[in-house]
Amino acid sequence: MIKAPFEMEKISDEEYILNMGPQHPSTHGVLRIVLKLDGEVVTGLYPDVGYIHSSVEKMCENKKFEMITPYTDRLDYLSAVNYNWAYVAAVEKLMGIQLPERAEYMRVMLAELNRIMSHLLWYSAFGMDVGALTPIFYAFREREEVIDMVEGMTGGRLTHHAFRIGGFKNDLQKDFLSRLEKFLAKFEDRICEYEALLINNVILTARTKGVGILDKDTAINYGVTGPVLRGSGCAIDLRKNAPYSVYSKFDFRVCTGKNGDTWDRLKVRMDEMRESAKILKQAAAMLPAGEFCAKVPRVIKPAPGEVYTKVESARGEFGVYMVSDGTEKPYRIKFRSPSFSNLSVLKEITIGSKIADVVAIMGSLDLVIPEIDR
Amino acid sequence: MIKYLFDLVKGIVSLFEGLGVTLKHCFRRPITLQYPEKRPDISLRFRGRLVMPVDPATGDNRCTACMLCVRACPNHSIDVEKLIGEDGKPKPKVSKYIYNLGSCMFCNLCVESCAFAAIIMSDEYETAVQNKASLIMDLAAEKYKLSGKKAPWWQSKFKQEEGA
After folding, report:
1. Is B65 domain-assigned?
2. Size of interface A-B (CB pairs under 8 A)
3. pLDDT mean over A361-369
4. What interface predicted TM-score (ipTM) does this complex get?
5. Is the CB of B95 inside 8 Å of chain A's CB atoms?
6. Which domain holds residue B132?
7. Would the pLDDT of B158 be above 80?
8. Cα separation of A372 and A301, whole Å?
9. Is B74 on the interface with A (CB under 8 A)?
10. In chain A, which residue's Cα lies nearest the Cα of B122?
């Protein structure tokens, strides 16, 4: 049963209702959060989603398989490649397409660049949320370089439409590897700068340490994934635990936090950028020559059946469940989006904290609204 | 008491660490671009709005009105009308190529489906217009002249990527 928002409930004289959103800058999109407050302390919380529901899943039922890929870009405009990947992998799995080695490495590289892109934006937006204005200027400088690299490869800045069923449309551009090398050479130093600027700052640590503690069991019960789960000390990363593509060949660490508070989630994301840079370095060194697209039939008609594929996106486990009935269009598509389950845990970790902490906690969850509403 | 002092010193040090980062940036070269005067270097594969360029070899577009792009478009942004000859029979030539910029999502699927490389996503990114009606345009009547680094790429039917 759906619980009614607090407006319907009878509340005591001491408490009052406050709407946060739908046009609140710290919700990063159109998300409304109804807060029940006692003074400054949050006693109840109700996230009201669905403002920008676009019924992507239903739309996909009327599109041919190759047409759906650009729609998956728009679920999460910050790490579009990972979302492409889950969908494209689902079709490939149904059709039994084996990717060339080069395409797999190219996919890994684009996905990791996207993760860096997404985390850099999260870093700058989180700084804005808690009142630090400088991080956005510094992080966007590096993000711009990454975007330029991915744009040169795919043609799009945020909605890349990078993957096609069976591989890629274009090979890497000629100067991609040299640009990547140049970027990675200084990126490590830049992450250290970011940490000195914001993450280790005494004011920020005072605002985030011990705030919004999410323990391991609650996280698992709510189906929380990604950096939020890892911040609670649970070392689950699909790239390590259920390695897809060529991720098993890379040497990287699953970053975890200890206490599960807001600061741990920040730290996990900063560490993850380092690990992504490490994967990129290895992938660039191991990149084989050869074809970048498998042989795909002109008309894409997978055999009847159902399939579930999942990838570790920048926000957590993104899964695609697809049923095909043997025609050119899918019978049903269901997207399992990480932000939705990450949002659902907000109530558990926010109640009892101050209203200013809600902004910090929400920022640390790294929500993307189109993906919640779909 | 000792812990309090320790935290105090640590806090002050962390503040100065952050300030050191900002101080360092005072001596770095700015990376910003004075936008309307100076333009960024657009990459070759960038997807701006769709255009149907005039082939300088023939002085006409390459479109044969085969409707492949219409079928490839995910959200029906393209509508093609065939040229009807004087004898009343349709000719393999386009008379109207209606493109709806308002619903286009720049996915490049139409360009990829075209067998004659008649259309290309240009490097035009300032596509805002004053009223909604001007978002719907006739690309065949526009007689767009492709220039810049996309031109040789398009001439070679997307085979040679020079300067990529």
Report:
1. yes
2. 77
3. 86
4. 0.84
5. no
6. 50-147
7. no
8. 30
9. yes
10. A155
